[in-house]
Amino acid sequence: MSRLRSLILLLLLAIFVSPAATQSLRERRQVASPDGTIQLSLNMTDAGEPRYSVTVDGKPFILPSELGFDARGGLNLRDGFHFFSDGTVFFSMDNDWTCPWGVNKQMHQHGNVMMVCMQNSTAQLCLEFQVFNDGFGFRYSVLANHADSIQVTDELTRFRFARDGDAWAITPDYNTYEFLYHKQLLSQMPYAATPMTFRTADGLYGSIHEAALVDFPEMMLYADDDSLCFRAELAEWPDGVKARFNGDGFISPWRTCQIARDAVGLINSSLILNLNEPSKLPGDCGWIRPMKYIGVWWGMHLGIQTWAMDDRHGATTENALRYIDFAADNNIDAVLFEGWNEGWENWGGSQRFDYTRPYADFDVERICRHARERGVAIISHHETGGNIYNYERQLDTAYQWLADHGIHCVKTGYAGGFPDGHSHHGQFAVRHYQRVVETAARYHVMLDVHEPIKPTGLCRTWPNLMTGEGARGMEWNAWSDGNPPEHHEILPFTRLLAGPMDYTPGTFDILFTQSRDLPQRRKWNDQDKGTSRVNTTLAKQLANWVILYSPLQMASDLIENYAGHPAFQFFRDFDPDCDWSSALAGEIGEYVVVVRRAGERYFLAASTNEDARTVSVPLLFLKEGEAYVATIYADAPDADWKSNPTAYTITQQRVVRGDVLTIRMAPGGGQAVLFELIKK
Prior knowledge:
Largest sheet: 10 strands, antiparallel
Strand content: 25-35%
Distance between the termini: 64 Å
CATH architecture of the domain at 3-274: Distorted Sandwich
CATH topology of the domain at 3-274: Beta-galactosidase, Chain A, domain 5
Shape: globular
Structural class: alpha+beta
Helix content: 10-25%
């Protein structure tokens, strides 16, 4: 019997053995959040179609909405269902768990669960609902009767909103998430990738996403025929099938909705992580650790270096040693090297990379030895160019090679089309990403995944899955008109709700004055029209190290632009290994204020969109009875992201708990503050 079939049978068995199942619950299929403010109900139509609905504070939030699937081969997962007699289980969860890293290392999981099983002539269907004070999630467990295989052709899940409101989302695309966010009314939003974040007309905030995406295509949202209704749409296989399984059945990812009374409540939600399984990694996980890093990377995007070995090659032994020394001298944990291995010379062709053969001008033995001597970790790079067959053939060999060289962190890349018509986000690809995560874990390697499948909280189950891209990041500023200032005030309320992002902030040469006129600079991308730049102030670049959370946090610029720069002291002091975090204030697309604690130090940051802004922040997070020195990196009075982006000030002041910090931000600006305990 397969593990999946065993799990589904255990879920079904729980219906009959739980003490809760002995109650007469046939008429009561409702479950509420622990504080009673969110209530979810499940009903059945006369045609045997399950429907769920949700109220918040006693008001309709999700109107009765469809559930189920369409499938081939006579398998009916749509209608004709009836509930098992007394087949509903209720129980509560109230427990603490610990992350080896995260925005908060100490987590609390407090929710109420309702499991309902039903059947028709072809299948048994279990629906599990978990409701927390910050939202809800539900998933399907399907056990087919006498099926050799299951081919899902559509998901019927609907989100039928009771009220209109504003929504923020990117265009759905099953190969990339690298788009700018657009804001529209829910009633006018034609489609959305998730997370899709919204604010209803009566001021309630929410975000639709999914959790624990392991063996399923990703879900996106498309407007249904009815007003304010969105249907789940799944990435498909080349033949049009959405998901395929053997006849044992399947368990879907969670369909999730975070709910908050204010915008920052979404950021502070732990719903996505709480819906994932505990860590599967055995033994001591001390090899997993947050790190600050720099890298041979930005020069390629600027066009002054190349990935392939030529007269502008970036990943040379000379550059590697120089970057390692800079990291060691500036309290930086690691260095990333892109373009170190053979294969870049056939970019655009076979996309065949060799993950154990360095280029001739990259002396890996000498580089690894020097890194060990200086106490600096190496982040290797595995670009696939989309040729995942080639990558999978080398997986074990490549990760064994890394382990042999003492390398325990890899940035993967999938910049290219997948073979045989597969998309980046279909079930075939999701299985590949999961295979890489599990292989890396066996060799004690942490992952930073670029061109990834979106995060869905799997970093709880596989803590070596540290961070990833999955949105428009810093590199877009190097060869296009770049990301607008408001982009950084949208990401925390959208993409970052899904999990950490390797945005790679921290570019100081905002106008590219140090590289634009270099003779070796060449356009590698025809989107560069000579207008490329970073669309923020320098102080906002510092702030983004705190706001755009990643346990692997990069200082993205060329090290020449950091050497001797007073503002770089903030990154030297910064610690990505935070113990506690809280979003303090903000509105989607307007501004955001976040604080994080690492040990006894606090890092606070704020940023704003195109508008200048002043925000007052009570320092209620500081420890009572202690005094701190606040080092404040701020926009200068005449700073402006368009006309004077690099003007900044550094000041210090003594503060205690309860003081109010006044944060003044220039248009497109920000502020970063380090709070250090004054020793008695």
